[in-house]
User: Fold these one by one.
Assistant:
Number 1:
Amino acid sequence: MSEEYKREHVFGIDYGTSDFKYGPITLGEVPEVVENRGYFVDKESLMSKLMDIRRDVIVGKELPLFLESRKSLAERMVYPMRNGVIGKDDWRAWRVVEELTKYALDSFAPGDEEFEGFYLVASVSMVAPRYMYEKLFEIFKRMNEERTLIKAATIIPQPLAVAIAHKIPTCVVVESGHGNSQICPISMYPIRDAVLALNRGGSSANILMAEILKDAGYGDLAKEESLVRRVKEELGLLPRELDSAIDYAKANPEKVRGRLRIPGTRIVIDLGEHSWTRFLVGEYVFNPNHEIFQSYFARGMPKPSDVKIGDTFFYGMMDMADAIIESVEKCPIELQPHLYSKILLSGGNFGWRVPEDLREVAVTSDLKLSSMLREKGIEDVEVRITEEPRFSVWRGCIVYGYAVPIDYEWDWNRMEGWLYLA
Amino acid sequence: MNNSVKLRLACRLRNRAEVRDEELLSKLLTKDWKVGVRTAELDGSIVKLLSLNPRRDEFILTLSLKKPEHLENLIKSIVRECWYIDIYYNFRGDDARRVAEALGVMFERKGVSEVKLSGVDLKVSAYPSHEALTVSYRVGWAEVSKGAVLKIHERLCGAPKSSILSRMMGWMR
């Protein structure tokens, strides 16, 4: 097996909290994306028998075709990586991971005789415990039972993948996905003792968006998670400074008015006089401590809580700049200025758009975080949003797979190298 | 076809690179390219150094191409230092179908086909469930000097359309 074979057969998988990104090196710059979820079909139902549905879990693009009632959605839909960590005995979540992995590899595995399996680089949350690595390798081994799909596999933490994709050996990677945010200083390797996790991600902004929709008279739509997410992505804004953005919105209601038509349906959402709340959605991700959010908490919106998952403590209400400072301050003092001078923002939760006519009051994530850090006395800050932040982990997987030599075998102490499976 | 075409190039060096990663592009490219840190630009076309392998005898570039002649320019500058260059195209959606049709390849069936074009063997991989098509081929100095790169590119991505004025005036030439 040669380096040349590996170069043609590196396959990246990013097990994101919301989206599952996958594909071989030959896909170029953009991976395939499906939601990181699986639907457990009621195999006992008469219709499943009549329709000859043999699979117990449905994943991928055809999943919506199998959905039943809203009630069964809650019972049967499983999002395995919701907070980046899967319980050891959560068999339903592991089953979905297995099915998604097979779905991804199967759809790209060539049928020719020369194919001897992919070199798979999988990426998981920085806070994933060791047993997740072990479980994933077990799953990868099982992939080969019917047909060899994986020649060798390796697993890397998502922030490291981002740093690799950008070839920046010393930096802080802030990876903010659907379920949570990870802050990880890197100096050649991730500095594990300094990793800090927030129990806040895109889903927190979705929860607030749902409340805003209820207040604006769309309570029925607020129950549909994918719709709420879409409204957030289209209408949510990140304010330069929240109070002045709200003042601006109230003084210029037409400029800030949020209106959205959902294609293929009759649904039109118009936030009308509630349009100023568009700025709350972005602010909440970066700083949920503003007093304006108290009214939502008081009305029953769940407050992001501090939780311990595995060995990791996830902070609920810490603002993002404080989280970066706390994380960096756990690193050697000499290193700290270098870390502040390269902060990389990755993940779909940083993709806030700025409409041309609202540039005065709305900003991108890098500008927001730079100003938050400066306010807290950090100078010489450089914050950068990665190119297409949703895909930077996958791209890092591909670069890593290309660079790690075939004879560099997996080492459980260093947690790196190829584990040969075929 | 999109305004800019994205390609990936894997280049096998004759000798190990002895310069730092940041200096590789300035060593290889002609002066037309504005070279930055791991990137270079020529009239809107951008090339990025993705990675060098640990043996430092191979590197991967990504290229966002505005004009086909920039591809030829790039390949000609690099190939002098290389045994060969593997060029990868990835097409999605309608572009994938169109290219498959142009190459006479069945797009609806997943698999790898080989097609000969301008004396070069093209490997065409079709992934119909993802509506994706990958085309790759290897060139050395011999193929480059025969102009194969530009001919293949034009076959895959279409020759650049002439302006309406030049088409109207074409009869005069």
Number 2:
Amino acid sequence: MSIGWYLAVSAIVFALGAVGVMTRRNPLVVLLCLELMLNGANLALIAFSRMWGNGDGQILAIVVMTVAACEVTVGLGMIVALYRRKLPIDVDELRELQG
Amino acid sequence: MSAFLFFVAAIGAISGAVGVVMLRNPFYSVLALVSHLVSLAVLFLLLRAEFVAAVQVVVYAGAVMVLYVFVVAYVGGEGDTIGERLHGAANGSSGAALRLGGAVLAGALLVELLIALLGTGLEAVGRYGAGYAPGPHAYGTPAYIGKLLLTRFLLAFEVASFLLLIAAVGAVVLARRRGGLDEDAGEEARITPLDLLRPKHTGTTAEGVGRRAL
Amino acid sequence: MSTTAWAWLVLAFPLAGTLVSAFGYKRLPRRSSGWIGTGAIFLAFLCAVATLISLQGHTPEHRQIVSSLWDYAKTAGIDAQMSILVDPLSVFMILVVTGTSTLIHLYSISYMEGDQGFCRYFSYLNFFVFSMLLLVLAGNFLLLIAGWAFVGAASYLLISFWYRRTTATKAGIKAFVINVVGDVGLVLGTYFIFKHSGSLDLLRTFHAADAGTLGHSGNGDLVAGCVLLLVGAFAKSAQIPLHTWLPDAMEGPTPVSSLIHAATMVTAGVYLIARMHPLFQLAPAAQDVGAIAGATTLFVAGTIGLAQTDIKRVIAYSTMSQIGYMIMGVSIGAYAAGLFHLMTHAFFKALLFMAAGSIIGAMGGEQSLQKMGGFKRALPFTYAAFVIGGLALSGVPPFSGFFSKDEILLVTGEQGGWHWVLYVVGYAGAFLTAIYTFRMIFRAFHGEPVAEARELEAGHLHHAEHPTNPATGEVEDTDVGFPGPHHTTAERAMPMKVAMGILAVGAVGAGLLQIPKTDFVVDDFLAPTFKDAAAYEPHTRNGLLWFGLALGTVIALGGIALAYRIWVQRPAIAETARARFRPLYELFVNKWYFDELIDALVVRPFAAAGSFARDVFERRVIDETIVGGTTGVVRAGSAAVRAVQSGFVRYYAALLILGVAGVGFYFLLQS
């Protein structure tokens, strides 16, 4: 399969992740969709790395995965803290930055 | 054969993604993501990135998703159907128009990307870089990745490990129980996560304009 | 020491006196401020005498000396320096000013004794003298204007000296506003002259005028400039139509009236016209304006003086009238005569005011002639002073007023043409002067002694039960800002007696300086200043002279006799005259309705404009439209922008995706 197919899959996954980020209300699921987008980007990276034949893309994909892991950790920690303070677990309700 | 595998994996990935977005129960979303991740690992394998595929399964699907599962089990939460979400749920959620608009925007993005892709005539992306040459240091093997990590991308490697450390510490600090604070205190004692990061004697903008603190 | 060094010292001493009194009033013992002030002016007087002696040491061609301390501003087209001009005219003026000021300061030490503002008074008085000296010594237009303005400010400070009295503060404001109108005229006039001369320096301007480079005679700009200078002169010298402030200025303490409104400030206008004579000679129209205004004033003031009942206001109107003589004199070219009259007038007018202060002290603050009478036995010294001053004022020989007034009228008559009208008006005014002056004296001192006089004869000075404002009769306090509880008469206070005595000698003897056909001290002294004056012919008077002298004597004595008949022998005549000539009487008593006229023509329109500006323009246009509009626009704009920060994370994410899509679109279009 030519690289183009992989890139198409990557684009679709990325867009789906974006739709999910925009539409879901549960912050957990929003984070999940964020993961989707990251994975889509990863796929594109690996595909291009394969195309050019050097390992830069793969290294970057590993780094992206690391970053994703960190971000998930922190995000889930915040959600747990939210839950502990009995605040609504709903992105629409958390509007402190308004104004 | 590889084409067949590609399509299987691709369909698995996309359906997993769709499942994440559409499924109501967050737990199901997590499971859908896990399947998506595994499909993606297969795609990576097809792209001669063995190490990355292994890392994907072990770290991402193995560790990160397990963490997710735990948190979902703890927090839980109901989701809405996609129809409710797009047109505003019964509990008067604001920003319904935003959701629809956001979805449209994401669709626009997709269209753009596809146009970009197809517009090139798939020629620029039609090559294969590395031939198949098995060996211990071939493209995509762990040895290859390791060599790159420790020579050319040493700084990135070190920074990434530092980042992991920070994230771990941060997560612990964020989620720990504050001493002396009752969990079922009244409304007045409710503080947001931002309260923890805020210095004493400062307030939120919302409080400033007269709205009660959340 | 050089002449100019003495002249600078003349300026320095009063300034030093002001500052010492002003800043040291807490440390110095109270009465010392009076002696410091008097001493400073006395030293200035001595320096003035030294300047005179030193100046006379030069040859007549070199008696106009300019001395400059430093350059104030020297840019393209303007040369402003701190320079003084020492010449016979300025030395004459500083001698008159410092001489009379010393005596008035001396008088004030007793007069203002019980006042809580004693130190403030002497500080202001010294400041006034300094300003007046600056005015007359100024060597360029800049310092002249500065001195002019300072004098106006000092006048305001001193008129409203008893600042807790509303009448006094209103009078001070009135004086200051009218003086400012004059200041504007002066500055604009300076501009018109400067436009052609290119220099602010007085001597340079005059040389240009004489040489003809300033423009031909009757040049429009010059006439305009001189007329504007006249506006300034009229405001300062209380000539019609800018005279309404002078009677109200009697709200100030009597020594202030004596100094400012008799001897010095009101003569500034006369000095200005005399100083600017080269310019006036190039603008005959302006000279005519001055002469007519002077003549009008002297007549109108005389008629008003006939009907006034406040003793100080009678003297004030007589000042206005006499200044009218001086203005008329210097406008038609009788410079030496006009200035000689300035000097003699300073003596006898200051004397009259001081005597008025004495009798007001005897009355316990009351100033109305209707309440006075028969003080002849109780206040002999004051009576003598009044009589001497009155005789000098009326122009009875051999008192000084006779010689000076008649000299002015003589020059007027000699010029012929339409100046005969001025001649006749001048003698008519002299008749009126004699009448109202002696009306005042007879009413106050002759007749049955009033209660206060009898008290005084018994040796006890009358004190009013409650101190009252003499103008309105309202009861007031004796605290700071009001006159103190102490008042005295000349008979009881030696400083007052000494001052009045010296002035009386001057009033009697100053005429000796310029006896016609015999000696020409003033003429000769002032000759170097006026060497380019057209009508300055000091030694050629004849024919009209004897006629004038005789007429003057007859008119003065006739006026006194008429006053005696009416107010001593048959007071009923005054009543019947008042009844028969009711409209005329009303006109005189209401001061020819000038106050009402100015109120209707000037004050009301300005007040209306001010109300309009405040209510309509300020509120509607500025506050609501401009300021409110701007803030409204900003507020609306920021409200619109604020909507971006909705707090929804989703919204921000949408913006992000929109941005990415946009960028991608852009790159898509590029390729």
